[in-house]
Amino acid sequence: SPQCDLQGLWRNELGSNVALLALNVVWTLLGFYHTAVTATNKQILVSPLQGAQQHPSAKRHFAFGFTVQWQFSDSTTAFVGQCFVDRHGKKTLETTWLLQEEVPFHRDTWKATRVGTAIFTCIK
Ligand code: BTN
Could you tell me which cysteines form disulfide bridges (predicted)? Predict the structure, then answer.
């Protein structure tokens, strides 16, 4: 089956859309994240992301990670995951994320980090 190319448009089960640009040779990821949901009461803005991917070489399920710098909130989210291609050529990104909120006091750090998983399917 074909190799997984991270470059393209992706959507997760929440309806968030991610546009990824993969700079090969340096294995850098750039893109934009349009989240469908927020933990804030702010208006959602499309936000930039940056990351890195492991050299795909012969591997079909290489690892990658990226961080989103939210433009409308003080939080940041780090995603790590792997790309999979099924035998019909359907690509998915299986990820785990950490959403780090900026809390005003050290005593509040216990509630500063959310964790979750997300599966992205390729929409373009
Ligand atoms: C914020 O609410 O402070 C910024 C937006 C966070 C959106 C989160 S990141 C993990 C989860 N997956 C998504 O697609 N959106 C939410």
Answer: 4-83
In a domain, 2, yes or no: no
Residue 2 predicted with pLDDT over 70: no
Residue 62 lies in a domain: yes
Q: Dump strand ranges (E) for the chain.
A: 8-12, 17-23, 28-34, 47-53, 63-69, 76-85, 91-100, 113-122
Ligand 1, pocket-test mutation among 9, 17, 37, 100, most atoms within 8 A of CB? 37
Q: Which atom belonging to ligand 1 lies closest to the Cα atom of 114?
A: 10
pTM score, whole prediction: 0.94
Domain span at residue 82? 8-122
Q: What is the pLDDT of residue 4?
A: 83
The answer to the question of residue 1 being in a domain is: no
Rounded distance from Cα 104 to ligand 1 centre (Å): 20
